[in-house]
Amino acid sequence: MVRRATEQRETWITGIGVVSSLGEGLEATWDALRQGRVNVDRKTYAPWMVHPLATLNLDTQIPKKGDQRQMEAWQRIGTYAAGLALESAGIKDDKEILARTDMIVAAGGGERDLDVDAAILTSRADAKSGALNERLMNDLRPTLFLAQLSNLLAGNISIVHGVSGSSRTFMGEEAAGVDAVRIAWARIAFGQSEVALVGAAHNGERKEMLMLYECGGFNLKMDFASVWSRNGGGFALGSGGVFLVLESKTHAERRGAKPFARLVNVVSGHSSRSVPGGVESVLEGLWASLEVTENAAAIYTAATGAADATAEEAAFLSAHGDIPVRAVGSSFGHLSEAQFPLALALGSLSLSRGALVPPNDMSGREIEVDVMPAKIVAIGVGHWRGEGMALLEAVS
Amino acid sequence: MTNRLETDWAPPKPQNGKATMRDAHNRPIVVVTGMGVITSLGEGKTENWKKLTAGESGISTIRRFSTHGLKTRIAGTIDFIEVKPFSSTTLAERLAEIAAKEAVGQSEVGRKGDFPGPLFLGLAPIEVEWPQREEIARASGEAGSIDYDTLLRASGGGRFGQVHERYLFGSVADHLCETFGTKGSPISVSTACASGATAIQLGVEAIRRGETDAALCVATDGSINAEALVRFSLLSALSTCNGDPRRASRPFSKDRQGFVMAEGAGALVLESLEAAQSRGAEILGVIAGCGELADTFHRTRPKPDGLPIADCMRNALTDASMTFDQIDYINAHGTSTSENDRMEYVGAVAVFGDHVRKIPVSSNKSMIGHTLSAAGVIEAVFTLLTLEHQRIPPTINYDIPDPAIPFDVVPHKARDARVATGMSNSFGFGGQNVSLIMRREVN
Q1: Does B68 reside within a domain?
Q2: Angle at B343 between CA B338 and CA B347, to 5 degrees
Q3: How many domains, in total, are found in chain B?
Q4: Considering the domain boundaries, does residue B238 fall inside one?
Q5: Nearest by CB to A167, which of B68, B117, B431?
Q6: pLDDT tens-digit map of B15-25
Q7: Of A152, B9, B211, B395, whose CB neighbour count within 10 A is largest?
Q8: Could you tell me if B390 and B251 lie in one domain?
Q9: Would residue B181 count as lying in a domain?
């Protein structure tokens, strides 16, 4: 663990943008969760399953058709969710603030042209003969590259919404989502930034990504179940985008912005996962550094359902068994880079509305509670690497 | 312009006797105590510096794979490091390891395999590459048409477990973190061709926040494969001067016609001045300022007035508490594309005015090509070596100056000069702009 600095400013979450398989925006998302809705498509990719993106009216956040055409799905999802977050924070059209808003996006890569790949593989055009080159030169769309480059989600957000204080893209699956939030928070808490847009987008409806996770044996197959009832069966990928606006308290108060929650601390760790219990011990270390008073807290976790990681996280949670737990993956699927921001977004929303989302679990781990906790800890444990936590508090 | 330091928050006051450990903004001064580099010119600082100041080019005809049917058949490949079977991601990891080993070795910080701070890695995006895709296709046993359903059916069962790990975006940083024992969650960053500079900036900020006394900032790129070449080719960004590879990269020349893709890696060990001095480390230079700004104009082109580029440089000056006339040297982004080189000049004029003609400028890319995600760190290393040796590497191939870009580009031959402070620029697709300011002396 890197040493924690001592002096820090209060940081608020003042904007939340969410789109997912459950709909767009905070009302639709909240209602779906209250009703226990789950939107999972078991047919299109059978025997695999995904949580497909709800239909969006793209024009409302990406008004220019030309911009929409220049993006692939993951960029449109993210640019849309970023717009919702800016709107939620009340800075959507505030050029002065947007020009100094810092941005950190956690991103994977963009969609490949599956038809081109299939045609090349079918023709057995290999690299040795140079036939691969000719097919790529002739068949790839020139602009596809820009829809694939990881940092071009941030680039599109700059172009469409005018966010231009800075633009950084972190890569590295679930860990990138944790560290994007951690760095955005730390920069504000230690006076290096006043306002930041941070988040991620994920398109789960992609066969090339299913293939990557199938190589590692991480895809949930056949039967859908909540994260805690999968017995290491893995995850169902989900589509969605989550962005948050973080702001120093003074900056927010000066413009009269209301917080969803106070972001007290964000920490991350690294377990090589070569030793059993490694993840659990990293989580205990992170938990200790948050200094949480247990009787007043709830946990929203970005748990994946991946075999070893989720088992170790479950052991950690059992050691803190009095704390109510919610796993966002049961309702939304696995959004990779966006999963930790999603847990944080739902935690903030819950604190601002004074209610936890209902349990979505038959295993008995998630239980109904009467009293609304004053603090929520968001936990991220990536399927392969990446452990992190953030502490949220209600602002009274 | 955006003043990055406008805040009502004041950092803690300096302790007695430690005032010189902090900069004019009262933040810990960040110094460099180790550097490593590998490019198509060779491995290590000594060899690179010798060749760079001799005006040698590392660009050659691509031999790693068939270039049949490609418009561009030249690059700055690193062929003296062999990776089998070839994978751009594995090469990137190997290059990063080599550069980091040199940097950590020079700094003598921590212990072997126990680096006392976090890793920040500038890295190209990662995806499954063609040889692996073809291998999965073969494993399917399918004799007829192959699509992703075929691949999906063949990819399970554990036989391609290595493909999963290798092509996760986090795998390169994870392996480096394990090798060097860096602390905390390693961060991989992509800001296109500014990635290396952003990695340095993240390290500087972490030290300034007081989170850590040291940071390992690495950037690497091993991208020369057919699909990557095709992608840049289709955007008409690459030089097609295939007949004369060493003359293909011509930054600031009138007849420049695109950049030359290249591989390489660079690494810096950053430390707080206080930590470096207290362990008696040799200080190689100071990262005095970092500036960044996103351009909202276009996905690949800078705003025509160059103001985002200019404001990025101004942000770096503000961050370093310096004025433009204190910059003795500019290590340009200078890619050799028509657009970049012109806009870099337009941006510089907006900041430096007529004074810009008095500042020596050089583009390392004339010799090593464009090392893409790695460029920011590699060129920071070369800027620091420029300050150390008081010798400015040249811009080669500057035979026909572009009259629209009247920079003093230090043509053909290295130049000895008094250079106390240098600025290194990095710009990338997606409106990415980062400028770094480096100083030789601590105070």
Answers
A1: yes
A2: 160
A3: 2
A4: yes
A5: B431
A6: 554 558 999 99
A7: A152
A8: yes
A9: yes
Interface touch A1/B164, C-beta < 8 Å: no
Domains of chain A (ranges plus CATH)? 11-118+141-254 (3.40.47.10), 261-393 (3.40.47.10)
Helix (H) or strand (E) holding A66: helix A65-70
CATH code of the domain containing B229: 3.40.47.10
**B138 and B100, same structural domain?**
no
Find out whether B148 and B72 touch, Cβ atoms under 8 Å: no
pLDDT digits (tens, 9 = 90+) for B353-407: 999 999 999 999 999 999 999 999 999 999 999 999 999 999 999 999 999 999 9
Q: Is there a single domain that holds both residue B316 and residue B298?
A: yes
**A136 CA to centre of own chain:** 33
Instruction: Let me know whether B180 and B147 are in one domain.
Output: no
Instruction: Report, as an integer, the average pLDDT of B72-98.
Output: 96
B92 interaction partners in chain A (CB closer than 8 Å): none
**pLDDT value of residue A6:** 53
pLDDT of A3 reads 45
Helix (H) or strand (E) holding A82: helix A73-89
CB contact under 8 A, B212 and A126: no
Tokens of A173: 């699956």
Closest CA to A150 of A202, A205, A197, A110: A110
Domain shared by B73 and B158, yes or no: no
Question: Most B CBs within 10 Å: which of A167, A198, A273, A334, as the mutation test of the B interface?
Answer: A167
Average pLDDT, chain B: 95
CA-CA distance, A281 to A274, in Å (whole number)?
13
Q: Can you give the pTM of this predicted structure?
A: 0.97
Judged by CB atoms closer than 8 Å, whether chains meet at A214 and B185 is answered as no
How do residues B146-188 score in pLDDT, each as one tens digit?
999 999 999 999 999 999 999 999 999 999 999 999 999 999 9
| Judgement on whether residues B155 and B94 belong to the same structural domain of the protein | no
- Of B165, B181, B215, which marks where a domain is finished? B165
B6: in domain: no
Minimal C-alpha gap between B35 and chain A (Å): 22
Structural domain harbouring B99: 31-126+168-439
Query: Are A140 and B231 inside 8 Å of each other by CB?
Result: yes
- d(Cα A75, Cα A82) in Å, to the nearest integer? 10
Same domain, B216 and B265: yes
Compute the nearest-CA separation of B137 from chain A (Å): 7
**Cβ atoms B231, B71 nearer than 8 A:** no
Q: Span B236-260, mean pLDDT?
A: 98
* B245 and B143 belong to one structural domain: no
* pLDDT bracket for residue A130 (50, 70, 90): confident
In chain A, residues with a C-beta closer than 8 Å to the C-beta of B115 are: none
